Input
Amino acid sequence: MQKPQDSKAPVATAPSATVATSTKLFSDLNLIEPLQRALRDLNYERPTPIQEQSIPILLAKKDLLGCAQTGTGKTAAFALPLLQNLAKSKEAAGRRQALVLVLAPTRELALQIHQSFEDYGRYLEIKTAVIFGGVGQGPQVKALFNGVDVLVATPGRLFDLLQQKHVYLDKVQTFVLDEADRMMDMGFITDIQKILKILPKERHNLFFSATMPPDIAKLANNILVNPQRVEITPAATTAEKIEQWLMYVDKAAKKDLLRHLLEDKALKRVIVFTRTKHGANKVAEVLLKNKITSAAIHGNKSQGARVRALEDFRSGHCRVLIATDIAARGIDVDDITHVINFEIPNVAENYVHRIGRTARAGREGIAISFCDAEEKSFIRDIEKATGKAIPVVTQQPYHSKAVELAQLMSPGKAKAKIEGGNRGGNRNRRGGGGGQRRSGSGGGGGNGGSRSGFRGNSGSPNRA
Ligand code: AMP
Output
């Protein structure tokens, strides 16, 4: 059994998570005792909605179309029933064969899925392996040699190993395509098509995607046979839990605004997003100069460096993780208190993915977007796509009136403005208003540690 490269990484548990769960218990879902025991170890008490809906479908070996993103408990939703199906089947994987194939777009996600199979299957005799690019193939080839029950792979490396005949797919009984929309974005479609041609025609299929635009629906249609559809809409439910703020700021002042926000210790675990690697490096420099511990993950980093960065972030050794969109996909870190969009994504869907990094597993979170003059149109696109205006926080020390005015003048701009950092799109709300879920900051906000990201010493949110 191949250990993942970051076997020291904490297991994918969220014992304290307040995941939206159902009234059912795992035992109501007919899961076998070894799986229930593993779930008890992990402190999973009740299934999440996607688990409750998907587990019976998958135990009955029906095809599944899952419209859900990470953070919903999607991995256990498929890993648990697939493990149970494997445990009940008498089939053994032959040399260089796999019975279950899971394709994931990034190595981080592949590692996490693999870790989940290991965690949930700890009391079963299940052989697993994970393969991905960017590292030597030797250990992966070795892990595959005697055959595995579950193979988790990124498409590129799988295709490489297929071509070299280190792995065969003709015994695959179950095929899982995870984060199909991201696969498409990352240009994996050709690899996927080729892999589909090799797979046995008779198989159990699972297809997951956070979004379902027409090209993804078409791909799903090609793969699935009479699928049952399970739709969990964290984009809406999560979004409700995410307080979103927009800050207009000149490009040159973004670093000062970031430094200013990070002075507030309420920003405990923060992901700072940039569009480009260059942007990520710039942010890293600013933080280093200001003695704020951070770690960066982006495409230019070696696999080892990315795994280390994630471990440092997970363990709390680093307060800030700097990430580009692709590198951040599938990061499974709970307790992220704030997402800062240092650069606004130029693809609206990435905004939803980015802010979805916080408010995971039922928690709440804050997403703050820094918008400069060149990024106004990106915000417009995002607001159009999400159908919601992002409340603007004007009272912060680096507020740019010029960007604000230009944005307000632009056609079709939905207006929502926060005077003083309170939540909601209500212009007139001021700090400390009774009945609000939380105050923006130190203006009497109740629980001491404000989550707002603004220093309480100014007496009111970001009034510097
Ligand atoms: P996922 O959507 O698969 O990335 O899972 C999100 C997080 O929720 C992971 O940290 C899981 O370990 C955790 N999780 C999944 N299902 C449950 C559950 N039923 N109870 C508690 N935590 C869960």
The chain has 17 helices and 15 strands. Residues 58 and 81 are 6 Å apart (CA to CA). The radius of gyration is 23 Å. Confidence is low (pLDDT under 50) at residues 1-19, 234-238, 413-464.
